[in-house]
Recover the amino acids of this structure.
């Protein structure tokens, strides 16, 4: 947002307010601290679409009627029921320079409709529903039922003006349960939970008299993408550096181990629970901060530099972990969320926003739970070249025939989601301590610092009946969970980075004194368990399709492979024991794909099975051994990560703390 372009009869009342970063749930504030309060737009009529989270409704005894997906809407909207927005008093909103800021009054009417059956033969009808302005929360809308009550509300709006400013388009927004509905059901945990997703397109029937449409040529001329020469002090080029700003996790559905719904919570069945985040990012605001292109899949950027006009955009993944008695393991991983629009809240003055297709300086954006749970935007991680931040569209689940036309993803409500087993969220027998973490990452092409586009926080998952909750969520902290397990700044020999042009990984170790040596080990004295964690952040060895599908808009890949081997050089003459069951931990509960262990006189290696289960990007594996050698952070030896352990080449080598008996040999310094 830059200088005002309003004139004529429009009355602009300006209040000086403190500057703060805006989110879609907070009215936009210009960097100058001035907020135009009366630049009214009016919309009336149009189209409304809704998709309910059926599994979560079912877990609370709610059934939706008349909200089945409307046929023949195409792959983007195939999950949604479609209804007409009928003329009512109209919905007013504030939009300085055509950029939505907040709703200011009115309502939209809904034609036709649906109904919800509640426990106890109660029913809520939406045959004459309305979307109504909420004065207490002006960036939200209340969904009003036929009885005049707001049982649901809508937030996290992803919005833009379309069709030459004749339409107001909400590409996605969360539908959430109100406190009133939670109270009516006697389920306080339901308040503010994600219940579904909505879309709408409303017709603009009035706008400020002095409104001047932004010049399309000016919009195209403004971006300074990564690599563009920077003419300011110091020279160089513009650099992409996007920051993760905040996120929160929600439990969105669960099922029993046989696939039926709902799950039984902490019962005997080991069901599966889906967790989904709402995540916010913000572009940096340095003099040489680059603008970030944000073009939805199957759309074409008008710019030739530096992204060759293809449909590249940021991506989002999320993970879940637990630490049991100091042992870290990953217990959940999502697919890839394809971003499609940026709302550009709280931008710097003069920021380049490209009509919602460029993230400008200091601009923020939030992807809510609903659109992060949408099947039409979720794909497998294997389709991404993570270190480059590029999507291989050709041959993907959205374009299997490589013709540039979007297909249905084929996803179910569990495909590409982060699924966590209930057994991984219940107490471990005999454990002294258990802690849970979630993670959320943005992957942005050419971003110069991957560590500030990812963040983690603690959580405390719990079940109530057949529904799960993430529980209390701790402070937001930038960086991966492995850095919370072992801080690399204070322990530089116990948490190291291995990096190349193909990507980054971290290898960390923690040594824990055991109360007694394992009986089967044959070791005597004080025993220590060394737990090594390898976190593949964004490394992938990619094989590209032949030309012309190896670059540009039709980029395609044949394979994307992570690590298949992890090896440690040990201290001379160290006696070790490897638990035949607990020496390895991956993300699943399938013991059949565990890595095997091979020991030699001064080394130990773990090898992936021939059938697969390599350590791919965005995942973390743990490798454990037991010894009587006390930890000494000053004693380091080589560690190796390898894509193909059968060949002679080693892909990554670093030095990390390993066990040592105390006597140093010459070879220990190699």
């Amino acid at each position: 947002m830059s200088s005002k372009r309003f004139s004529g009869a429009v009355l602009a009342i300006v209040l000086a307010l403190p500057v703060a970063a805006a989110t879609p749930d907070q009215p936009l504030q210009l960097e100058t601290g001035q907020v135009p309060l009366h630049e009214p737009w009016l919309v009336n009529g149009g189209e409304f679409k809704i998709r309910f989270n059926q599994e979560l409704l079912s877990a609370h005894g709610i059934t939706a009627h008349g909200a089945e997906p409307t046929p023949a809407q195409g792959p983007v909207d195939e999950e949604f029921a479609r209804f007409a927005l009928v003329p009512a008093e109209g919905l007013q909103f504030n939009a300085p320079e055509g950029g939505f800021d907040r709703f200011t009054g009115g309502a939209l009417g809904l034609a036709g409709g649906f109904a919800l059956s509640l426990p106890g033969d109660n029913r809520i009808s939406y045959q004459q529903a309305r979307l109504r302005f909420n004065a207490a929360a002006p960036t939200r809308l209340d969904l009003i039922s036929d009885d005049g009550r707001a049982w649901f509300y809508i937030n996290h709006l992803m919005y833009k003006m379309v069709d030459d400013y004749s339409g107001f388009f909400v590409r996605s927004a969360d539908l959430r349960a109100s406190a009133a509905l939670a109270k009516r059901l006697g389920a306080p945990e339901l308040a503010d939970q994600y219940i579904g997703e909505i879309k709408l397109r409303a017709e603009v029937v009035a706008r400020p008299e002095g409104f001047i449409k932004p010049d399309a040529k000016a919009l195209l001329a403004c971006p300074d993408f990564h690599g563009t020469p920077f003419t300011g002090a110091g020279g160089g080029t513009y650099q992409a550096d996007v920051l993760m700003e905040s996120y929160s996790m929600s439990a969105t559905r669960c099922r029993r181990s046989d696939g039926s719904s709902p799950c039984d919570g902490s019962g005997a069945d080991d069901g599966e629970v889906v967790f989904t985040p709402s995540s916010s990012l913000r572009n940096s605001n340095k003099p040489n901060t680059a603008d970030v292109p944000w073009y939805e899949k199957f759309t074409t950027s008008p710019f030739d530099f530096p992204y060759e006009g293809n449909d590249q955009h940021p991506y989002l993944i999320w993970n879940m972990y637990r630490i049991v008695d100091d042992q870290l393991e990953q217990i959940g991983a999502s697919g890839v969320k394809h971003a499609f629009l940026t709302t550009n809240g709280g931008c710097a003055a003069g920021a380049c926003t490209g009509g919602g297709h460029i993230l400008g300086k200091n601009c923020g954006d939030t992807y809510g739970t609903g659109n992060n749970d949408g099947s039409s935007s979720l794909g497998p991680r294997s389709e991404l070249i993570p270190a480059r931040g590029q999507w291989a569209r050709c041959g993907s689940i959205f374009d299997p025939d490589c013709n540039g036309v979007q297909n249905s993803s084929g996803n179910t409500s569990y495909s590409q989601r982060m699924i966590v087993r209930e057994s991984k969220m219940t107490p471990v027998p005999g454990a002294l301590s258990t802690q849970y973490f979630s993670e959320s990452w943005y992957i942005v092409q050419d971003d110069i610092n991957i560590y500030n586009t990812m963040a983690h926080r603690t959580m405390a998952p719990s079940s109530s009946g057949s529904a799960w909750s993430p529980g209390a969520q701790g402070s937001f902290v930038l960086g991966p969970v492995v850095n919370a397990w072992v801080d690399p700044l204070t322990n530089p020999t116990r948490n190291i980075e291995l990096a190349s042009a193909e990507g980054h990984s971290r290898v960390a170790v923690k040594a824990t004194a055991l109360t007694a040596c394992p009986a089967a080990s044959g070791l005597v004295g004080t025993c220590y368990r060394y737990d090594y964690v390898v976190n593949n952040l964004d490394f992938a060895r990619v094989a590209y399709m032949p030309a012309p599908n190896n670059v540009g808009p039709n980029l395609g890949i044949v394979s994307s492979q992570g690590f298949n081997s992890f090896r440690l050089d040990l201290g001379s003459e160290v006696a070790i024991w490897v638990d035949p069951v607990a020496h390895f931990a991956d993300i699943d509960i399938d013991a059949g794909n565990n890595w095997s262990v091979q020991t030699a006189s001064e080394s130990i290696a773990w090898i992936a099975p021939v059938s697969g289960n390599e350590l791919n990007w965005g995942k973390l594996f743990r490798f454990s051994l037991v010894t009587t050698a006390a930890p000494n952070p000053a004693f380091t030896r080589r560690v190796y990560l390898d894509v193909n352990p059968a060949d002679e080449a080693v892909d990554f080598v670093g030095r990390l703390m390993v066990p040592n008996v105390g006597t140093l040999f010459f070879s220990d310094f190699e």
Q: What stands out?
A: The chain has five helices and 43 strands. The two ends are 58 Å apart (CA to CA). The chain has three domains: 14-206, 216-485, 487-670.
